[in-house]
Amino acid sequence: MENLKISTDVLFILLGAIMVLAMHAGFAFLELGTVRRKSQVNALVKIIADFAVSTIAYFFIGYGIAYGVSFLTGAETLTQKSGYDLVKFFFLLTFAAAIPAIVSGGIAERAK
To answer: Domain spans of the chain?
Structure first.
């Protein structure tokens, strides 16, 4: 019964993380609508680069500061509890990566 509860929690958090990740596409399209045609490719690359930098920063710095846990351990440790810790990391990562996307969309073509 406990395994079913953990698996259900993992599924629910994973679905939430996928929905938050889909918000990044929405932020990208919103930003594309606010910039001129010649800057659209640059805006898309900027959104992808923001996500990549946010992922690396959150992996090495943010999660460890927030929760006192490091991912620099063995795979068997991370996959305990049906991968709950990995899914939780992904869920929190999507929120951490959404912040630069919102900010960059607000200053699109306004900063040099």
So the answer is: 2-106
